[in-house]
Structures are given as C-alpha cells and as structure tokens.
## 1
Amino acid sequence: MILKERLLGVGGALFGALLLLYLIPTFVTGEVTESGDPSFFPRIAGWLFLVLGGLQILFATPSEETLPSKQEMGRLVLFVGAMVLGTSLLPIVGFLPYSMGLMAVIVLMVFEKRPHWIALTIVGVPIGTWLLFEQILQRPLP
Amino acid sequence: MFDLDLIISGLANAMTLTNICYILAGVVIGQIVGATPGLSIIMALAIAIPITFALDPLTAISFLISVNKGGTVGGAVPSILINVPGTPESAATALDGHPMAKKGKPLKALKYGLYYSFFGDLSSDIILILIAAPLAVLALQMGPVEILALMILAFTVISGLVGNSMIKGLTAAAFGFLLASVGLDPATASPRFTFGMLDLYDGLHLTALSIGALAMSELLHGMVNTRRGEKSAASIKINSKSKEDSHVSWAEVLANKFVAFRALIIGTIIGAIPGLGSTTAGFLSYSITKQSAKDPEKFGTGDPRGIAATETANSAVVGANLIPLLTLGIPGNIAAALLVSALMIHGIQPGPLLFEEQGELVYGMFGAMLIANFCNLGIAQFCMRFWAKVISAPKTVVFAAALLLCLTGAYVADGGTFAAFIAIIMAVVGYLMRMFGYSIVAFIVAFILTPQLEESIIQARLITDGDITMLVYHPIAIALLVLSVASVVFLGPRGNRKKKAKNVTAGDEKNA
C-alpha cells in the first residue's frame, strides 16, 4: 500500500499549492497592516501541506490501514445522504418527524429486525431526545 | 496564587447540591457509555458539551470530568465480561480480567478493577492538585517567544506520538490550523475563507466540529461496518454464589500495593506527556509488571496483579492529563481538548493564568474531581450488575440514538442547521482521516490552539522585530526548539519503526 501513501502525499502537496496559488489570494482578501497580515497563518498551513506532502512522497512507508470496499463506501454515501436530506428538512417538518424519519432510515440500514428495538429507536429515542433538550435543558428545537 | 481562602472557597463551591447532582449524573452516564461496546468516552464528552451550555462553568466542567472518570470505570466491564474493551484504555484489563471472570469470579474481577481504578484516579488527582499551581507559577515566567517555542514542541511531540507517521500527524495539525483560520482575522478583522457566507464570519464552531470529527465519524464507521445478522458478544453471567468468588478483601487489595504504586507512577508520567494516553499507560504498566514478576507465566490466567497494573495506570492518566492543560494551556489528549472547548464556551481561557484569574474555579474543579472519584466508587459498587446487562444492548440502537444526540447537540449548540451541516461534513472528514491514518488528536489540538498560536506568532515577531538572531536572548525558547528538533528526529522516522513493531498507540489515537 505504499502507492496509496505516495498518492496521499501528492494530494497533500497539490492541496498546499492550490491554497498558496489560488484559495488564499482569492479568499483571504484583507490588507496587510501594522497589526498583521491576515494571510500569514493560512500561508503557514499552505506551506506545511506542500512541504509535508513532498516529504510523504519521498519517505512513504507501507501503512496498515486498508481501504474500504465499494459496498462500505456506498453505505457511507447512503448514511451521509440520509443525514443531509433529513437536516435540510428539519426546519420545515419540525424535530419529531425529522428525528423519527431519520431513525427509521438508520434502523433499516443497520439491518435491525427485532420489533421492540425498532419501536424503541424510532419512537422512544426521538421523544427522549426532545424531552432532554426541549423540556429539561430548555433549548428550543424546531 | 496560594491563597488559602481561595482554595477553601473553591472546594466549597464544588460541594453544592446542584454540583453533586451533576457529578452523580456524569458518573452514571460515563459508566453506562464506558460499559457499552461501540461507544467511547470521547463520544460521550463531545455529545455532553452542548448539554452544559445552560450550566455555570464549574458545574459544566464538573459534569464533563465526571463523565470522563465514569467512562474509565465502566470501560472495564465489557473487557472483563465479554473480552471486548468498552473503551480502548481498558483493553489491557481484559488480559487478566476476562480469564478471572471465566474462572467463575466475574464480580471479583470487576471489583478488583474498580478498587485499583479508584486508587489510580484519586492518587493522580492529588498529584495534580499538588503540582499544578507551582508549575503554573513557573509557566508564567514565559513570554510569547517561549510560548511559541513550547507550542511548536507540543505539536511535534503530539504528531510524533499519535498515529503511525509524524508527517501525517503534522499534516493533520496543518489542517487544524487551516480550518481554525476560517472567519475574521483576529488582528485586522478581514474575512478569511468565508466564501461570502455570514455563518462563517465567526469561524467554524468548535462544538459542531468536535461532535462531527470525534463522535459522528466513529458512529459512521460503526454503522458502515455493521453486518447483517450481527449479534452482541456473549457475556459471562454474574452469579457468583460464594463470598470468596465475589468479594475482594482489604488484604487482597493490599497484596498488590507495590504493583499499584508502580502503575500509578507510570500512569501519572504518561498522562502528563501530551499525545500519550490511557491505552499506552495500561499496556506499559502491564508489560513492566509482568517482566518484573518472579512468576510471569501466571499473567494472562486471571492474576489480580494484571488487573492492578492496568486499571491503576489507565485511571491515573485521567487526572495527570490535566497537568499540561492547567499549567501550559496545552491539551495533552482529546478529553483534555474537549474540556478546553467547554471552558472556552464559557469564556475561560485555560493556561497558567487560570490560577490567577479563575482560582476559585480551578480549586472548585479539583474539589469536583475528588467528589467524582468517590461517586464513581459508590455508584459502581451498587450498579456493577446492572452495567453487566448494558453491554448486551444492540449496537444498532446505540448508534442510532447516539447519532441523533450528536446532530441535536450540534444544532442547539451552535445556531441551527448550519452547525448540524458542519457536524455532518466534519463526520465525513473525520471518517476519511481515520481511514487514511491521519491523527484526529493532532487535528483537534491544532484547531483549538490556533488562536493562541497566532497571537504568540504576532507578539513574538513584534518582540524580536522579525530578527531570528534575537532568539539568543531567549535561552528557554532555544532549549524548547532544540527539544522540538530532537522530537522530530527521535519520534519521526525512528519512532515509526518502533511503533510498527509495538503497535500500541493505535488505541490511544482512538481515545487520546
């Protein structure tokens, strides 16, 4: 897996170059004054990415981490998609429908089949969370 | 700094009814989370931070410290009963705890673990209380140049000690610097990487970021890797009938007093070094105890010395890891980093000045730590049998509930759906960082320390007029920079080889 490590180094160095050549000049736009240069610290980060990426390419050693399978990546995309979709709908539908829907999707995706556990997760957990934040901690939820 | 009235008033503040109730709640939550395989103390701390917003600073910190302490005790339960560590630091406890449980003495093994954990935790707290204030006085002698050099040392040490590669550790730290620079520049108030979004003008919120990177990334990993038809591990039932098999006498505890004292020293030293954590302490202490024993062949068969060595050492880390935080303002591990974020949310900047500016709070926190130890002991004594049932809770339900708490916590903590989206993005970033072996510890510590680091750089440049030769007037800074270079040399390429041989710090990366 040394190739993966070198590719990570290439990615890091390219990101550093992107920061220094495009992102910092474009998105850090303040003037340099006596009190400081707003781009000074981001540039340190950019140079670190560039130099460390180069070092990673040169001194990469085989790593123990294994890349996930396509199936695992697919599941990751599904979980993240469910969370993004649910969170987008949160202000519209309100907390309880949002959380019950999200719990139902997650319970399905983690292959839970026992009815009492499904009921607890879809109904009990959202109501418990709502009680904790809205009633006990007095933090308003939509 | 050593005002007795202040100390007494601080300790008294810790003993209010509200505080004690939150300490009890924190210990119970910590023990439950620790006993639940798949959940970690860090996850519990990240989720608990939004809960503390409405509390006063001392109650909030007491609650979080209690969650941390409870988790250390709870983590031993699944280690002993199902040979699956509830938390990474209790992995070494399984080496002798589980064989003892299999011999029909599960309650005895749990009680051994509890008593030595209590001893390690309480003793390291006392050490912290005794040495933190004098060390903070020394730390106050340092100026911006020395502080800058100290931070460089902290980053090289942390990057070298956690994860498998120093280069990756430093890259993770660079990513932390970058994300922390989002928002208005502190010196000129110019926007940096805000992309025209008003929500980003205040920067990325620490709570949403830590909930996403620390808790949700781990939950995502667990959920993605859940297999169809996966069942909870079979637990050893606690049904010892004889007193001999369920009771631990004073004589039995004291029989391992030298082992426990050595483990306390190991745990305290490891805890005080930024970047190392309870897992290293537990395994190192176990290994030294076994090597120095006359009968090493007994280890791994249910020997109480094995439990004493691991539980004392891993619990001693909990107090000791606050030493660099309170004396230098540098969080040594993620639990300490999360405490920093909780302090900062309440407008308190950790570091040596804390003793001068918030002395009452610091001594209140010390008082709360001592109370939490006794609550930990008392609650575990009564609830050990119940926690043994908690370990069979299905991961599917646990993951889903924890995920909802995370999203809701981020939502209420940092202003709505934007913060929830930040948490989701950081969960994916954290997941990818874990997958490619980049240290989340280095990333979070860098994110938290960046404002202070940036300030130190500006001040150091003004003091030295940008002339590096002016460093000769700062011998402490030179010594710290030399140590940084030495740590790069010794923990970089050489450290990598050693780590690959031992592969001990992997667990620390999870919980450090």
## 2
Amino acid sequence: MSFAVRRLQKELSKIHKDGLPQGISLVKADDFDEWLLDIRVFGENPLYKGQRFRLKFKFGNNYPIEPPEVTFTTGLERQIPMHPHIYSNGIICLDLLSPSQGWSPVQNVESVCVSIQSMLASNRKNERPEGNDEFVARNTKSPKHINFVYDDPTV
Amino acid sequence: MMSDEEYFSDGSDGTFQDDSMRFDDVEEEDQYLEDTRFDKPVKKAYEVDFKVHSDQQIRSGQQAQFEEISNILGLDIGQAALLLRHFKWQKEKLIEQYMDNPDSINKAVGIRPEAHEDTKITKVKDFVCDICCDDGDSMETFALPCGHRYCVECYRHYLTQKIKEEGESARIQCMGDKCTMAFDASDVQAVVDDDTFTRYKTLLDRTYVDDRESLRWCPAPNCIYAIECGVRQKQLNQVVPTVLCDCGYQFCFGCGLADHLPCPCSLVKKWLKKCEDDSETANWISAHTKECPICVSTIEKNGGCNHMTCRKCRHEFCWVCMGPWSEHGTSWYNCNRFEEKSGIDARDTQAKSRASLERYLHYYNRYANHEQSAKLDKELYTKTEKKMTQLQSTSGMSWIEVQYLDNASKVLQQCRQTLKWTYAFAFYLEKNNLTHIFEDNQKDLEMAVEQLSELFEKPVDQLANLKVEMMDKTAYVSSRRIMLLEDTAKGLAEDRWKFNVELV
C-alpha cells in the first residue's frame, strides 16, 4: 500500500469521524486518486452569496510529500468562482499548492479547503486574473507545474 | 551516527591554499592578475592562470572554509556550511553581516545555533505523526531545532524526494508549515540511506562549483575535474580565458565551449547563432536566386523562360543579363545583350545587394572548412599512430625518435582550431590598419598550416627523410600561432580592435 493511500485512508476516516468545518462537504471519495468537495462561503460577501463551488483534488503517489492538484470544476449549478487568482478554467493560483513554495506535507485536504474558502471570503474583486483568456486558451501544463508568481499576499 | 566533523573528512588533502583564496574578493582580482604578469614573464599574453581541482580537492576546499567560518563565528560545521552557501561563499560579507545582526541571518538561513543536540532521532511516548498519521511508542521520530517532529519514515520519504527527484541539496527545509529551518549535511545523513546521501553530497559539490564564479566544471564527458580561474565574466571582452583540464580537454573558462582563441566569448556566441540561423539559407539563396533590379526582392527562378516579371513591383527583366525586358526587342527568349549598359547597371545593383551575403559566406566557408578538418582530427590522430609504428619498423627509428609526428599532428589540430575562430573574429572586425596586421598573421599561419599538412600526408617511406623539415615546420607553425594569438590578445586587452558589432 502506497504512502499516499495510507495517509488518505487516515484522512478519510478522520473526516467520517469528526466531520468537516462549516461550509465544506465531501462529495465523492470512492478511490485514492481523485476526490470531490463542495465549499460555500459564509458571511455577507455578495460575490459568492448562496453559491456552492466544487473542488477537485487529484493525488499522486507522493502525496503528501508533494501537493495534490487542486482545481475548481463546473457541474450542476456549480460555476468557477470569480477571483483575481482563479482562472476561468478552474486553475487556482495559490502558493500553498506549489511543490516548491508554500506546500508543506503537514497540510491535508481539510486545511487546503479551509485556505481556499478563506481566500474566497476575503475577496472583494469581481474579476479574473490578468491574461486569463490567453492562459486558458494556451495552457496545457498541470497546474502544479506552472510557475506562478505569488506576488499578491492581500487576496 | 557520525559526528558533524567526520562525514566531510574523507581523506582529502586540504588544498585551496593561499593563492586560490585570493580569488575570493572582487577588489583583489586586478592586483592578482598584475602580480602574476610580473611574476611569470614567460606567460604569453593570451594565457591565463588556472588550476585544476579533483572532486576530492573540491570537497576538502569547502571543508576548509567551513572550518574557518565555524572557528570565527563559533558555530558548528553544518551551520557554517549553511551560512556559506547562503552567502554564495563570500566570506567577508558573511562575517561582517553576521557580526552585525546574527539573529536575522540565522532566521534567513534557517539555523538555530543555541539549540544544539535535542534534535535528531528519538522515540516519543504517545506520538502521532501529523504526516502519515501513524502512531506508536516504538516509532522513531526526527526534528530539526524548530521542533517540528514527524516520524523518520516521513522525513526519509521527503528528503529522498527532494534529493533524488528535485535535485535539491543546499536549500532543503523542514516539513513544517511555513517553517524555514534548514537541513544541514549531518541531519540529512541521519535520515536518508547511503545511496541518497552520496547523491546529496554530489549535488552539494555541484552547487559549490556553480555558485562560485572562479570555478567551472570541465565540460568534457565523464570528466570529474573542476577548473579554478580568476577571470570574471565582466572581463570577457578583454580576455579569452582558455584553460586545459587534466583530462586533456581544452576549453574556454568564460563560456564553457571548446577552445575558441582568439575570438572573445560574445563574438563566438553571435557567430554560432548567425551560422545556425543563416549559413544554409544563405548558401541556398546565393546559389539559386537573384534580386529584382528594381525592388531587390529575392527571386527564385523555378522553371520557365528568362522573361521575368517581378511579383512584387511588376518589373519585367531578363534573368540572364538582368536588363529590362523591353530592350530585348525582337530577340525574345534568346539573350545576347549581355554588354548593354542598363544590363550592367542592373548587375551592379545585384552585386551590391549580394556583397554582404558574399562577405558572410567568405568567412563562413573558411570557418567551416577548418571545422571540417578539425572533425577529421581523430582520424588523423589514429593515422599518425599507425604511421609512427610503421616508421619504426621501416626506418629503424626508436619510439622516441618518431615522436615528432605526434607532435606535428597535435600542433596541426590546435592551429586548425585557432584558424577556424580567426574567421569568426575577422567577420566582426572593422577594416582599418590594424586589421591588415591581423590578416597577415592569419595568412601566414594558414599557409604554414597547409604546408605542414601536406608534409604530413606524405607516404611513410618519405617521412623519415622529412624529419628535420617537418620539425622545423612544426616549430614555425607553432610560433606563427603564438604570434597571432599574442597580437589579438594584446589588442583585446588594450581595447585596440574595432568591431562592427557591440560586444555584450
């Protein structure tokens, strides 16, 4: 049994036992390759009020030494949230998800969800990242290996 | 587990002594260059001082510096190593800044000098690893001085991933979230297996050589040596620092390419780029096309008659004489008007537009010719060995007595290499009085090389009688090469050459 599977099993049983923080719910975790979770943002932020967003986690064999690949996906009543660090194809620019920069093996699915939730909650800008259209049209790389420049700690 | 001191001392002999240490300071470098010029009057203008280091010496050189810093700042070896790497081996800067503000530097580098020993591997009661979520009292755990304790298995997984997959060595940090505490060599050794640790040390040596401007790995395949040379990147327009590795490979310390004397690195780069982009295209254009006499668009005649109509400006002309088609009168399709004035003018324009192309091809063809000869070097060398054996049996000469052939072959190869780059040099040279001297030197060398080459190709039965002539010629060729290189090197140092491009 691989390192990743063992760890994910433990995460899963913890989620089943203790539950997840408010606004985060597990949608699908049938295997240890890909999980789906929904998040909601509470409070008065008009950008996301009343909406649900779906996160897709893809785990490699080296999880949690390496970060999972985390993106937003669309689905029934699920849109990609408007955010200056979220591209319209669902790719998230967040230093926490970069293997060389913010990721620490101590992070887990829950803590990543909480970070993304708070990233949305604190945002007031109804806009996409600069160069969104071009990026979405051209990018073929896995989001983990894109060299984002994490230059904006405010949002 | 070994102590900090032990893992580095692998029986090496502590070189990197005083004179290599002098490279450390930028301010000292000029003084260093001048010193040696006076100390060693035999050094040629195109030669630079350098030193070859084995991997053992590279390692002991680092060790000596760790010990020095460790003594001065009262830190252990592993911490001194992290500091030196962080400061890219600039000792003075490190000591000065560390004296001023040790705390902020400790934080930036990720060390904690006050906490020494409570790190390392221990078993902790009721421990749960936050990474694999395993627990058990018998589980071995590890933590850096920051106290982020996880099981050894997870740390091993993490470090192996960093070292083997990501090629990290000098900047591996604690696994804790946002923790910048750094791994030193003894920490890594405590956790990973021998194979990974060997890889880690190799990577560290690599970053050491890469971090220091005065060191460069020999680029020859499988060569383990590194060269130390005091020539800086910013001096490369004044010197062409050519070094000879102990493995026999001669290369430029400035850019790592094979010996390209007398051409400075920046011109070499430009030239190679140009050749890559242009040479084949230019050859083809030269052979297959002409320009329209009016709008100078390049036209390929891919069939049909000589009555050309330029697609671009609609000018009608004759492909053969380049004159306007209207003047051909009734003698269509049969050009006999080559002497006509307008045709001559048209051909003049054509010639001018071709001049720069032809100029490039002139230099390129000669460059490529010498390069081709250089590629045959290996063949030439094996041939020489065969000839030397044959000569011994036919003439009764001893091995020592036939060494002149080997010598001639080596000189020949070297001169071809030099000649090749004189053409790139000449291509960028602006014409003035000084270029005449250069071109004369080039011509003399080229002539002498061809003569020696001719002697070299003679059948074996004649070679014995040619020994004296050949030795003379070899000596002469060598001296012509030195002459040319001396002149170009002095010219570069004195900023005497005028180039038709910017040296960047």
## 3
Amino acid sequence: MEIDNKTKEVLKEFSPQIENFNRRFKILSAILIAIMLFALYAFYRQEKEGHIITGMRDNVVWGLYIANFVFFIGISYAGALISGILHLLKVEWRKPIIRIAEFITVIATIIGPLYILLCMGRLDRLFNLVLYGRIQSPIIWDVIAITTYIIGSFLFLYLAMIRDLAILRDTPGLKIGKFRRWSYKFLAIGYQGTKEQDKQLEESITIMSAIIIPIAVIVHSVLAWIFGMTLRPGWHSTIFAPYFVIAAIFSGTGVLIMAMWFYRKMFHLEKYITKKHFDYLGMLLLIMAAIYGYFTFSEYLTDWYTSETWNARVLKKMFDLHQYGWWFYFSVLVGNLLPIIVIGIKKLRTINNVALVSAIAVLALWVKRYLIIVPTLETPLLPAQDTRMEWVHYSPTWVEWALTMGGVAFFIFAFMMLSKYVPIVPVSLVSKPVEKTEEVEVKPTVETV
Amino acid sequence: MNKKIQHTIIKKLGRSLLIILCVALIAGNVSAAGKKLKTRIKVEYVKKGDNTKQIKATVSSKVKRKRVTLKGVALSLFDETDSTRLISTATTDKKGITVFTLPADYPVGKDGAPSVFAVRFDGSEKYKPASKKIEIKDVKLTADFKIVDSVYTIEVAANEMVNGIPDAPVSDVDVYVYVKRLFSLLKVGEGYLEDGKATIEIPNDIPGEYKTHNLEFVTMIPEADDYGTVENNKTIKWGAPAPKYPKYDNVNQRALWEPRAPLWMVITLGILLLGVFYHYFLIACKLYKIKQLGKNERA
C-alpha cells in the first residue's frame, strides 16, 4: 500500500509512542504487574479457602465484585455509544479520541464479566450455566447479552484499526520486532487501500456503528433488569433500565475524559486532543449528570413518599450518617452537582478541572453501584431469627479489595499495552482530509406567480 | 591368601553377572523382535428381551505392558455342546469387539445340560492363537407389573428352561430393574431371586415419554455365572406426566424450575440474537471480501 506524505508525517509523530518503552512506562508497568500478582494471590486464596474469606455471607451474597461488574460494563459505554454515534454523524472532532473510546469499551467489557466469575462459589460448575441455563432467568439474558456485546466490541475496534494496521505493516524503518510486524501483516488482512476495499470497510464500520448502539442499550438494560425484576426493596423499579443506561453513559464519558487527559499529558497530544474535545465531552458529562440527577431524585422521591416498610428501611440506611449517609451524599450530591457547576460555569471549565470533576463523578458512580447492591441485600424481606451482625452487615475483606485493585490495574495495564501496539490516535483518520457530508441542492418549493 | 581368594571370587561373580546380563538382553531383543504376543478373548452371553441371544467377544493383548484391544481380528464361534460345529465368523471392530447374534429359536441348554460355546482366534504373524469357552443354561425371565396399594411393583420370576419348558427355579441371584433413558439405562429398583421369585418396588414419579407417558423397563439378571446376562423388556404407561399449569398462570411459567420457557420469550430472544449475529456474519463476509481484494491487488 502506498502511504502518502501526510500519513507518513503523522506516523512519524506517533512512532516513538509505539517503539520506545521508556523508564516511566517500565516503572508503571512493574507497579501494575505487582498489583495484579497480588490480586492473583488473593484469587488463589479465595479458591483454596472458599468465599468464607470474603465479606459475603448468606444475606449479602453480592458485594464489591458485582459493584465492580456493573461499573466496568458501565464504562464500556464510552466506546460503544460515543464512537458509534459520532461516526454515524461524521463528526470531525471525533477522530483523535475515537480509539481511546474503543479501547475503553473492549478492555472494560473483558474485565467486567470476570467479577461475576469471582462472585461464583464453585467455578468448576461454570459449565452448568451453559448446559442447564434457563431462558426465564435474567441472569442468562445477561450472559447472552454480554457475550454478544464482547464480540461486537472486538469487531468494532478491529474494523477501526485495519487501516492503521496496514499503514504500520507497510511502513519501513519502524523499530519493532519480527513477530509484531508479522501480526500487523496478519491482522491487516491484505488491506491495500483500494477503492473497493475502502468501500467494504467503510460499510462494515457503519453497520457496526449502527448496531453497537442498540446492543449497548440492551446490555445495560438487561443488567438493570437483574435488579429491577427482583422483588427487593430498592431494586424493584420500572425506571432501572434507563437509569442504568444513563449512569453508564455518564461514567463512560467520565473515564473517556480521564483517559484523554492522561494521554494528552503523557504523549504531548495537545495538537490533536484540544480544549474543544474537553469542552464538548464536558458538556455531554454535564447533560448526563443532569439527567442522572433527575432519575435519582425521581427514584428516591417516589420510594420515600410511599414509605413502603422495606423501601423506607433501605432509605433510612442511606440517609443515616452512621450507616451509608456519607457515601450516599458523596455519590448523589458531589458526584452529580460538582460536574454541573464546574462545567456549567465557563470560567471554571478548564481542561484540568473537567478531568478532575470527571474523576470525581466516576468515583461517585462506583460508590453508587455499591449503594445499589449492599444496603438492599442487608435488608432482607425475610429476616432470619438469628440476625448476628456479621451475617447481616457486609464489610469487604482484603481479598475483595485486592481483586478490585487488580481489576483497575489490569484495565490501566491493558490500555498501556494496547497503546504501545497501535497509535492511540488513529493515524489513517487524522491524516485524512475533512469528511464532507453530501451537499444537496435546495430548490424553491413555492412558485412565484 | 584370603585377599587373593576374595579377588578371584569377585572377578568370577562379575564375569557371571556380565554374561547373565548379556544373555538377558539378547533374549529380550529376540522376544521383542520375533516372539508372538499373547492374545486374550473375553466372552459375554446376553439373552435379550425378544429371546435373541448375543455372544459378545472382546479381543485384547498386552503391548508394552499396556492392555490394548485388537481391531480387525477374525473370530469364529463354535457350538461344542455335542460335537464341534462352526456357527459363524466375524471380525472385531475398532474397539476390539464383535457380537454374534443367535436367532430366538436357537437351542440353548438342551436336555438340562449347559450349552458350550467357544470363540476362537487362529492367530496371526504378530499374535498367538487364543480361544475362550463359556457354558450357558437357558433361563426364562418374566416380569409382572402390578400396582399394589398404590405402590408400583414388579414381580419377577426366573426359571431354567429345558427343551423349551420351564424347569428348576433360579435362586440366589441378583436382579435389577432399569428404565431406558436417552443415552443409558437408569437403575430404578433391585431385588434378590429366591426360589425363582422376587418382588421389586419402583418409584412412581419417573417422568415418562412426553405424550404417551410410556416407560420402557428392562428387568435384568446381570452376568450370572451359569446364565450370562438375561433381560426382559416391557413398555408400560407408568411414567409421571410433565406438570401442566393453567394457561395464564404466569408465575409458574416464568419460574426457574419450569422446564419450558414462555414461547414469547424464546421467540423474542431468538429474533434479537439472529438480528445481531446476522450483522456480525455480514461483517465477517465483508472482511473476507477485503482479504480477497487484497490478494487480487497484490497479484
């Protein structure tokens, strides 16, 4: 494939990013690997000694693991929705950030379901889920939906990478190993940039962009229905599906902004990831925060006003500062209001501030997932006669924290490794001229008499 | 003096050991190269429910200390009760097994004496000849299916057959009742034959065939020394029907223990998955096309 000068210039800018493993990268990798190894040790202990070494008991059977699962599936929305919609609308400014969004999707979709496995008491019985799964169970809907979503996310990322893989394959002088070069050749599937190939590839990306949006909505709705279709206080709600979808876009946008800020600083991408990107995505974050706040208010107001016994008990725990009060106020007030205030006021809307409120919003949303799961499970509809506090009250152990940190470390590590494999900014896209939408001649519809 | 004798003894011992070792090695090589391997034949007799008789032979040998079954071995079945008479020949399958089926009216246990069957292998370049005999008396096994005080009961009777007439009762032998399932037999009851009779109770909640509620029972005396395996088959409407719920009882239809998911759910899920995977397939086709176009371009 012939590579034009513009592409060569852009690639030249990004080649150090994929060629060099500098000291900072190595140190960070070593720290992340150490965290992952510690998580692996925690997993070994959990498998050897059983779930007794976690904080989960008969009442609270879902804890940190399921909170993490919902969180990671949520942030995977960044790629699916943002890049899907922006591609369909042919928005020009999407080009430098689209790959970051797609990486987030793929990595988060891999990590999320791992937490379900960690939550299972007998991993050796995993195949029974496939062999004896019941379509009536929302858990099976979730398994099917997430599997479909993982395949879709991989396809979407792969399709968007083919052009860059072909460029990397045909660029001589890159300081990369033989295996890596072979992998570029293999994965580029003979793409030469011909008109017909380009047409086929563009059609494929458009199909995936269109289909990944409903898939992503369905996946998170199904995830919400696992809770919503259960008769438990705090869960049994009709708005849970859209509530989860909005939370997912909210957290996904937050993580995308954080990743943009990190890569902008690390690889000096100021030329590509500009203030405009932070402004636009900041606005999206603001809108999502507002909608999410509205949903939250509506959800808790109806629960509080009806004061149904069991719902009231859960709410009491949420508002009580001696129980979950501080967590609740942080997630609902700080996590929702802060992005609205900081991004809403133009003076405060700097790149660093947008990134900071995004990080706070993401943390608040993780806390919210924890609050959806734990207080409800601590309020059983049929309380046991012997209600010892250690049976009812959930407190995560070091094993669960280690595996949570392991997941976060894996997320960052995988991100770093993928950005070493292909440029974090799609070279083929940013070197392309501006995409023009079709111009249609407008004819006057009113005849002059 | 002592030292000299000791030295001589050690020398002689060493020499003898060396010779023994060499002989053993040579002998070993010779046996590995030229000696034929031993063959073993295992024979089982089965009288089926329709009175056909089967003689199942399994041929094996020890190769490198491991027992392996032999494929493609030509076996002959002889009736040696009065005189030696060839009944049939057959070749073993890939599992080293061959089954000779005798017709329902083939006489076994004539005049009260056991029939003698022999399976023979004439040997080959690699394997030694082998043969195996079995002595079998004919047995008639009957099963009477009754409901006694709401309990499903099978009354089993077994008698030796002499010239087609029931004779002495079979005693001190285990008898089992199985139900035929999709892949194998499910044991549902067992008893012990005394004076040729046994009464076996079986559960009344075994799911039967979906529409007819039929269950196929196999009553069996397994691998008895004098009689081999004797079976009796009977199909009877003793299967428990699948639970039926009222049409609009949604609670049960959506329950996880309900074997049939609601149809609308299966159809909805099917359409959704089909729609999504159709698009994945479409993209896979397009990727293939891109690859082919790339090949043409390079050519």
## 4
Amino acid sequence: MSSAAFALSHNFVAAAGEGFTPPGLGEFIFQPYFSDGTLPWLTKPLVASVFAAVVVMVFFLVGSRQRALVPGRFQFAVESVYTFVRNGIARDVIGHGFEKYVPYLVTAFAFIAVSNLFGVIPGIQFPTLARLGFPLALALFSWAIYLGIGIKRAGFFGYFKSVMFPPGLPVFIYPLLAPIELIQVLLIRPFSLALRLTANMFAGHILLLLFTLGGTYMLFNESVLLKVLAPFALASAVGLTSFEAFIQVLQAYIFTLLSALYIAEAMSEEH
Amino acid sequence: MSFNLIASTAITASGESISSLLPKIEELLVGIVGFAVLLFILKKFAYPQFEATFQERTAAIEGGIEKAEKAQEQASAALAQYQAQLADARGEASTIRSEAQADRARIVEEARSEATAAAEQVTSRAAAQMEADRLAAKAELSAEVGRIALDLASRVVGEALTDDARARATVDRFIADLESSTQEGTR
C-alpha cells in the first residue's frame, strides 16, 4: 500500500515537472476510503460493484412489478432486456430446457453490462470488472453451473470421460486430446471468461484515460503545436467513450453467450 | 535525477503490476456473495413475474384472436342469414308482383265485362224505351190516322160518322187489317 501511495505521488510529481506520464497500472489501484486503517478493504471498485448489483436489482424488481399486459415505456424496456437474453441467448443457444438457466444468464448479462457501463458514467468512471476479482467471481458461477449440469447428467466419471474421450476419434488422438480437453473445461474456460472481460475493460479504461489526460496535458502545455492538437485528442476521447459503451455491452453479451454455450454443451449427450 | 525517477517509476510500476492484476480476495468474495444475493432475489421476485406476464399476454392475445375468429364466424353467419332473408324477400316480392299482375288483369277483365254489361243494359233499356215510344207513337198515330180518315171519309160521304159506333168499328177493323198487312210485309 505504501508503495502504491509512493507511485501515485511519484506520478504526480513526474507529470508536473518532467513531461507527460501516461496512465498505467496505478490507475487500477484504489486507496481505502478511510485513511486511518478502518475497513481497509473498502475501496471504490468494491462499492461500485455493490452499487451495480443494487441498480440491477431495482431495475428488474420495479420493472417486473407492474405486470401490465400492455406495458408502459419503462416496463417495456425492462422486459426487453429480459426477453433479449431469454430468447436471444438462452433459448437460441440452449434450446430445449433453457428456462432453468434464464435467471442466471439474465442476471449475469445485466450485472456485467451495468458494471462495465460504470466505466463511462460520469461520477464513477471506472469499469469495476477491470479488477479481476469480480469477473473471476462471475466466471466461477458459470464454471460451477456447467460442471454441475454435466456431472448431474452423466455422473462425475461419466462426464469427465465424455469430456476427455469423445467417441468417434482415432485412438492415438486421445493421449493428446484428453489432457487438453480436461484443462480446457476445468481451467481455460473460466479464466478465459474472466480475463476476456477484465482485459477489455482494462484496455478501454486505459485508452480513455490516455486520450483524456493526454489531451488535457497538451492543452496546458506551453507548446503551441500541442495546444492546437489538443482538441483532436479530446474529441477522440469523446468518440472513444461511445465506442467503449458499445464494447462494454458487447462484452456482457459475449460473456453471457459463452456461458450459455458451455451450459448447452454440458447438457447435450454428445460432447 | 530524471533517470533515477524514471527508473524508480518503472520499478514501482512493475511491482504494482502484480498487485493490480491479481484478483483481490475481498473483491472475489464480494463478487460471489453480491452476485449470489442478486441472483437469488431476482430469481425469486422478478423473473417469475416476467414469465407470468408473458403467459398472460400470450393468453390474452390468443383469446383475442379466438374472439376475433368467433366474431368473424358470427358475422359470416349473420351475412348468410341476411342473404337468405334477402332472397326470400325477393321471391316474395316477385310472387306479390305476379299476383298483383294477375289481380290487375282480373280486375281489368271484370271492369271490362261489367262495363260491357252496363253498356248492354243501357242499350237494351234504350231499345226498350225506343220500342215503347215507337208503340206509343204508333198507337197515337193510328188513332190520329183513324180520326183523320174518318174526318176525310165523313167529308167525302157528307155525313157525320164521328160518333157512330159502327164507323168507329169499321176504322178499327181497317187499321187492324192495315197492321196485319204491314206486319206480314215486314216479315
């Protein structure tokens, strides 16, 4: 923690005196709200993440309360999110028996989308899923669900046998295939789910910071050339913000879609 | 100095890289617990409402379609009924019309025969009247002729025959003869 504080102050000094310091990993380290040592774990990403959950909860609870046959504008919006995941992802990917997994997929999609959009929402401006802990938690849910489905369907050994030794392949393939498939199902899938989210949010946040901070730096630089070019950097920051909003929702969609694919695969008899 | 700063920044940054990229246990825990709570609440209170609403909506739409189909059926039944009634009415109207035509022909015929009868009656009455007039005139004429003849005869003979009963009988006989001869002549 002290090294983090040192790095921050260091960056500041460097920015003031030595020229522009691009945003780095320090942007993803947050000091606790209370500097006196109470609740040292209470940081901005943590609070924002809980806030995202509250937003999603209120959104769906209020949206589902009216139950009007002819929905109003808000009810329609909430139902659209629900039906988008229900029909567009769960039903299309999983098919028969998809209803059971709609709640998880809808909740994951909404939570990820809101958490990601925090990256462009003024006042928060940090995509909480850029901190690996949160996406890892979500990926663990997907992981546990599809493993649970597979084991429940075929039994523990039966499932892993179907994963490692899919029928209909030449025998000499199996020594190569079996460990790859096992690692894939047990490790690569959850970590790829989590890392894809984190890396996208991380990169997007860095990109926005770079254009915003860089543009500001150029604007207040003594060099006339940099002053002239500064508006272009800031305009790029505005444009990239819209682009990021798109990426953020897209990543929520990808996470949900892949989770549904894994669930569908675990449900099907054939590997 | 500046080299030193850069170097130390690089070192701290690489030191930070580990702690900023690795998941923090409290984030993982908050993520799992928070998401589990969120999932539980929404699964229990929100999503069943959506499904129920969708089902109600489907039922309402299907009911609406059914109702519309029923209404369509009723409408076509009513149309068929109206058309049948219309055809009936047309048939009735044509019957009435043909009856009326027959009536008219009959009435005209009756009126014509009546008029003919009346005309015949008038004609016969007129003929009878004329006959009576003719007879009366004839009678009067014959009396007159008798008287004139008597006058003439008495003037010729030179004596008064007027009040003589014989003379009268003679005249009467003469006239009767005259009549019978004229009647035979006409026949």
